[in-house]
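Workshop exercise sheet. Pairs work together: one partner reads the sequence aloud, the other fills in the structure field after running the prediction. Swap roles for the next sheet.
Pair: D.N. / O.F.
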Amino acid sequence: MDFEHLPNQKVGFGKRFRDIVRYIGVVFLVGVLVATAFTLWTPASVLPRSAARDIARAMATRVGRNASPVPPTATPEPRELVGIVAGHHGSDSGAVCPDGLTEVEINLSVAEQVEDILYSNGYDVDILDEFDDRLNDYAASALVSIHSDSCNYINEQATGYKVTASLETQTPIESNRLVNCLISHYESVTKMNFHAGSITYDMEYYHAFRELDAKTPAAIIEVGFMNLDREMLTNNSSTVAQGVANGILCYVRNERLGTDQ
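Structure field:
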């Protein structure tokens, strides 16, 4: 055996071994870098922020195999609608007292209080002007026009309230029931007398009765005389409003009246 070549063979082997180790190390390092890059890379990193957010929300809210479905939000039941005409509002002052008290301010005050009471009891309310464009084919569960009577002194009998429906109504049963509810509850709350003998032609053929949707029950109420009933109409308007509201609630709730059989 030729021993003179052994040192050179050892040197060659050591160099090749170091080259192999270096190669493996480079491959390993590259593998680590690539793995790290793929770990850090997500679709969101290359998508617009808004698109990435939408995808994240969709992934977070999707229903999985074991997830409980989210129940749909219940649609609230629509509230019944009641129309209230504030007599003379948007048109003129109505009756006027010598000291300047006007019918329209009484009517509007009562109408707004009636609105609050009905709304708190679960009903939507439209307050309408005297000649409101919305009155044309107006459809609601009921409509009541609120007015006050003259401020002139007539006699000691010129006190109390009046209620009537249209003599031409196409819903006579419903409208008459609305009238009866108003009479019963208004008198009960205010302790005022029903002044049936002074119901006028203008009340029975009130213009709004002809403008409404034919299926809308309607009535007009004169809540009192601005002369002898002034104290009730001004300083106790909340009582007046409660009486009107109770009458309307009686009708829309189909409450039983003492006259019902």
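Discussion prompt: Residues 3-61 form one domain. What would you look at next?
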